[in-house]
Design brief:
Largest sheet: 9 strands, mixed
Shape: globular
Radius of gyration: 21 Å
CATH superfamily of the largest domain: Metal-dependent hydrolases
Helix content: 25-40%
Structural class: alpha/beta
Strand content: 15-25%
Length: 437
């Protein structure tokens, strides 16, 4: 095997992860041991003397090895907006951020609404370390008028369906989408927003928006849509996944629905767990303009409670890269969205683990185990004979976010200049290993 240098992806011949804390919450595994990997397979987990080992050794003392992290909500922009991101740069950002898999949203140009485009995405990612799981459009052209050929798209490799960026307006059409997707064991991932309330807004509607004179997006625009979506899912008995939950009302509705056995899952994003609409007082759209918008402190605390009690199942980034021109402008004309692949693990470890609010096994559940379960992907086991699909991170490493060093083409991050405690160190997948800086 070639010498393992930082910021380099190489194929694995024989690699020893020495002295790692192996943490797998799904299989209740928490032990310190050596992991011997040959090509793409774990050969042995035990105590292996490194002085007699003929291969490459990665010292993992103080590091955590976990099942490969999966970001179930990213925008790779290709095809059509390669000036913002490509599948290659997005996957490089994912690896640098500690993710071995991503699910890419279909609002590309053209949208991922037919077999050839799903296959195009898969072909572009085939030889990259990061697994890319395409999410296909619910409606043709994302126009909300006619359902896509869901069976054909599922057969081609789509893991879910979404019109992300826009909700499915028509309730009967949404019902049919749930029924058809359910026939192929695929979830609907719904952008829950009542546009008649939200259209034209730029931030959360409330005291701060009034202070700033910016048109707001009321929290009930999300709450009403979430309520509709879970009621229809309950009626047809098919799964719905609520994307990027941002309000206390949505948490309350989802919690109550789960208590009745409704097949609903949900995700939120690091920025909703860390920031509030107070940050918009900077008038910096590069950092703080996203949809859904940053909400209030009460909403932020409700999201944390939702993560703790299992109401919210996953943390995803909604990675949304934009060009400088899209963001370097007035707040009310700037594009929505921020990037997150390269800051997700650092932000979560710094803001949720270091302060004692969450334990590492819970974070692995939220960022590795549950996203794969929701998408119907094969679970990852850390055991002899299993494929080596692993994330290695240092929970105590300190580093400062510098967007100019990102693998992503995007620079639109709210964490620019922030010092994190916790960092992805390496990822292993498909017989390859990437060692970060």
């Amino acid at each position: 095997m070639p010498k393992l240098n930082s910021d380099q992806t190489v194929h694995i011949e024989k690699l020893l992860l020495k002295g790692a804390r192996i943490l797998d919450s799904a299989h209740k595994l928490d032990e310190t041991a050596d992991i011997l990997i040959q090509k793409d397979t774990i050969q042995e987990i035990s105590s292996i003397p490194s002085d007699t080992f003929k291969g490459t050794v990665l010292d993992c003392a103080g590091l955590v090895v976990a099942p490969g992290f999966c970001d179930m909500h990213v925008h790779l922009r290709e095809p059509g907006r390669e000036d913002k991101e490509t599948i290659e740069t997005g996957c490089a950002a994912a690896a640098a951020g500690g993710f071995t898999a991503v699910a890419c949203m279909p609002n590309t140009k053209p949208p991922l609404d037919n077999r050839s485009l799903i296959e195009f995405v898969q072909e572009r990612a085939e030889y990259l370390l990061t697994d890319v799981h395409p999410v296909a459009a619910i409606t043709k052209g994302l126009k909300g008028e006619e359902l896509t050929e869901m069976g054909e798209l599922a057969e081609a490799g789509a893991v879910a369906f979404s019109d992300d960026g826009r909700p499915v307006f028509d309730s009967d059409q949404f019902r049919r989408a749930l029924e058809y997707a359910g026939m192929f064991n695929r979830p609907i991932i719904e952008h829950s927003e009542e546009l008649s309330l939200a259209e034209g807004g730029h931030m959360n509607e409330g005291f701060v928006s009034t202070q700033l004179g910016l048109k707001g997006i009321p929290p009930i625009s999300e709450d009403i849509a979430v309520a509709r979506n879970v009621l229809i899912a309950e009626y047809v008995g098919k799964p719905v996944h609520i994307a990027h939950v941002s309000t206390a009302g949505s948490v309350r509705i989802i919690r109550e629905a789960k208590s009745r056995g409704v097949p609903v899952t949900a995700e939120t994003c690091p920025h909703y767990l860390i920031f509030t609409d107070e940050m918009v007082k900077t008038f910096d759209p590069n950092k703080y303009k996203m949809n859904p918008p940053l909400r209030t402190e009460a909403d932020r605390l409700a999201l944390l409670d939702g993560l703790k009690d299992g109401t919210i199942d996953a943390i995803a980034t909604d990675h949304a890269p934009h060009t400088i021109d899209d963001k370097d402008c007035e707040f009310d004309v700037a594009a929505f969205g921020i990037i997150g692949l390269e800051t997700s693990i650092g932000s979560v470890l710094s803001h949720l683990v270091q302060n004692g609010k969450f334990k590492l096994p819970k974070i692995i559940e939220l960022m590795s185990v549950n996203p794969r379960k929701i998408l119907g992907l094969d679970p990852i086991e850390i055991k002899a004979g299993a494929r080596a699909n692993l994330t290695v991170f240092d929970p105590k490493a300190e580093w400062t976010v510098d967007p100019t060093q990102f693998k992503s083409k995007g620079r639109n991050t709210p964490f620019d200049g922030e010092t994190f405690t916790g960092k992805a160190v390496a990822v292993l997948n498909k017989g390859m290993v990437y060692l970060g800086r």
